[in-house]
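To: structure subgroup
Subject: Chain for Friday's discussion

All,

I'm putting the inputs and outputs inline so they're searchable in the archive.
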Amino acid sequence: MNKHAKVISVYGSYLHGAGVSTMALSLAIVMQQITDKKVLVINLDNERSLLEKFIERDVEIKHSIDDIRIYEEKLKPEVIENHVDMINDNLFLISKSKTGKTSLKFVDKLIDIAKKKFDFIIIDTGNNPDDNLLRNADISIYVSEYNELTLDNTVKTIKDDKTVIVFNKFPNEYSSNLTTINFKKNHNIKNQVFTVNYDESVFTEACEKRNIYSFLIKNLNSKNIFINDIFKITVHAAEHSKVKVQKNYEKRGLIGGWNLKIF
């Protein structure tokens, strides 16, 4: 087993459309690029996730978690490798079930065995994740939009100070630095808090063109504000996991010469 394999669970607010799937997929793409590690994305949100749709023009999706579940009693690393879809040489996807909810017992077994072959396992757990799945994750990331309706719910939902909070679709006119400081102060929390600014181009590439992978790869070294924000979160997750970021992303922080600033 890869003793250093890390599991990152991404989940979101009760309101559909917070951006959990976009966050999980973007995090996986950038993580693979800046660490050159082997990354697996697992979509466990069978009800609402559009994760597969976001890359369907980049990747031909042939398998799903259902194909692996057939081998539950005799599950081996080779079975997983043979039933994932390759996004690139070091980035892979297990698509959501087409038949219904997947048992937690099977999910736990799947993750344990996948750790033997992958360095990072990033899970889209949707809006109603199992508590055990969050507890067993090395990093949990909670995604919510930033507005009056969701702020109180965010505080009530977060169960420990280790969970990373991400305010997605953050209004560009707000100061992200000042807002996160005030949020932590007003609610007396110690969690790491990040913001991801709203970017119309990302919505277009994910929801309309359905090729967010090629969009992110093409613009990885640009000053796109969405990518810049994703970099911050990804670098934090990599450093928390004690995984080195490749030299061309060290020190100078982020893309386009922007300095990394973690709140």
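Points worth raising on Friday:
Residues 6-141+208-257 form a domain with the Rossmann fold fold (CATH 3.40.50.300).
The chain has eleven helices and eight strands.

D.
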